[in-house]
Amino acid sequence: MILLELALYFGVLSLMAFGGMPAVMPEMQRIVVEAKGWATPLEFVQLFAIAQAAPGPNVLIVSLVGWKAAGPSGALIALLAACAPAGLLSWWIAGLWERFKDSPWRMAIQRAIAPLVVGLTLSGGYVLCTPSTPDWRLWAIAAASGTTMVFSRVNPLWLLGAGGVVGGVLLQ
Amino acid sequence: MTESGSVAPPRTLGELFLGFLAIGARSFGGVLPWAYRTMVEERRWLTQADFAETIGLCQFLPGPNIGNASIVLGKRWFGVRGSIVAFLGLFALPFFWVMALGALYLEWAPHPVVRAVVTGVGATGAGLFMGTSIKLGKALIRKPAALVLVAGCFVSVGVGRVSMLIVMPIAAALGIFAARRGWL
Fold first, then answer.
1. Of A87, B70, B152, B164, which sits with the fewest C-beta atoms within 10 Å of its C-beta?
2. Residue B175 included in any domain
């Protein structure tokens, strides 16, 4: 029952996505590619590319994965599963936030989570540009885009476009 | 500059829907700047400080940040109906665009040049993740305990491909222990 699996896996990812979806990209790749075989490693990178290039929240990669695994209903179920659990949690916490936001344990949790988000986001980048065996061309493109992002404020869309051109030349 | 006196929440659910539709429809290259522009500058639903506070809450909680923000703001203004309407408005157009782009890609995927271009875009996106983590990581550079946690997550999850279901509870427990000791 693929729809149920999509709902379950992406529902769990929703609640682990601290700081947003980048933190769970390595786990998503592990489930989609290694555990379930819904996409090949390279296909997963390409679905990720489409979700990055299209306008809209980057969580929409789950819809592409859901679609590939189970068709249009898979796309919808995957999106709802990735948003609903965290959405319900936010819905519930929002009313209490005034009381919580300055409490010492909230600060402690935030400080505890910060390095995890950094390590997991870094892992996501590494996993995505290392689909199977290490390929210097993918690493070079990723290094160039990461460096440019750190040292300039250019709109990421330009970088994605440039990366596409370089990919078209280098990766055929 | 936005003055706090001059902002007013959306009056109807229709207005709420159209506002979030405008955010989703235009959000090339990241949603957050468009959310700010639409809600704070154009429609003046929120003050700058209010916006920052709401985003802060949504970044603290797990899940897609802007999806959470639609639910939190919708609730604040119209209750449950508001949450649902804002969420649907946000995703209505991007969902179809990403599907359309996906369909187009599947059509052309056998073409080697198309595959190469799309893979290049993917590698660039991967680089953006690395850039993001470096930007966020700068704040941790003087905290050895934080760097150990970063390295631990990277080696286990990124290189070792260990499941986050195993790594996350351990890392979170260590993180909270370190935070309570004042190491983070």
1. B152
2. yes
